[in-house]
What we know:
CATH topology: Serine Threonine Protein Phosphatase 5, Tetratricopeptide repeat
Number of helices: 8
CATH class: Mainly Alpha
Mean pLDDT: 82
Low-confidence stretches: 174-196
Strand order of the largest sheet: 1-2
Structural class: mainly alpha
Amino acid sequence: xxxNSLAARSPIIKSDLCNKIWNSAYNTIYLANTVIxxxxxxxxxxxxxxxxAQFIAEAKFMRAFSYFYLVNYFGEVPLALxxxxxxxxxxxxSAISKVYAQVExxxxxxxxxxxxxxxxxxxxKRIRVNHWAAAAMLARLxxxxxxxxxxxxxxxxxxxxxxxxxLETSGGCISYxxxxxxxxxxxxxxxxxxxxxxxx
Length: 200
């Protein structure tokens, strides 16, 4: 992709899958940064402020989502928050804690702005992220950073929306307590159950 220097800088590893993950994530991040910068700078009066804010919030969610999985596959990764080639071409890797902090900021921004329904999508199809998607992703982030109380709060926000969602169990590793107070996930399974880490 033109201007996306980080997607072209795939890690030196012997795995097509990991290279695809790297490239796909940084292409998504580049597009998200394009939306964030473009929408923030746009002056056209034909775009309502509420629409502009939603576009930016959706882009921040996608950027956070991509960085969350990048850091869990690869560890320290370059943290690109602009499409400016001069700033991204030679970015060094950022500490995992710094990447997680940016992921949290983006998700909290999305959580505050995105709607609590699916009306933004045609026919209210569940194809665009909303407030609850941000809450669920924050719950997952906080589990990985060991902030279990925050994870419980965010997870409970989503679980309590019984008109929209239902809780699925998976091999007994997830349990929802009747009191509605918290979601319990086996800490030994949460990191490596979904993906194999890409080491390089």
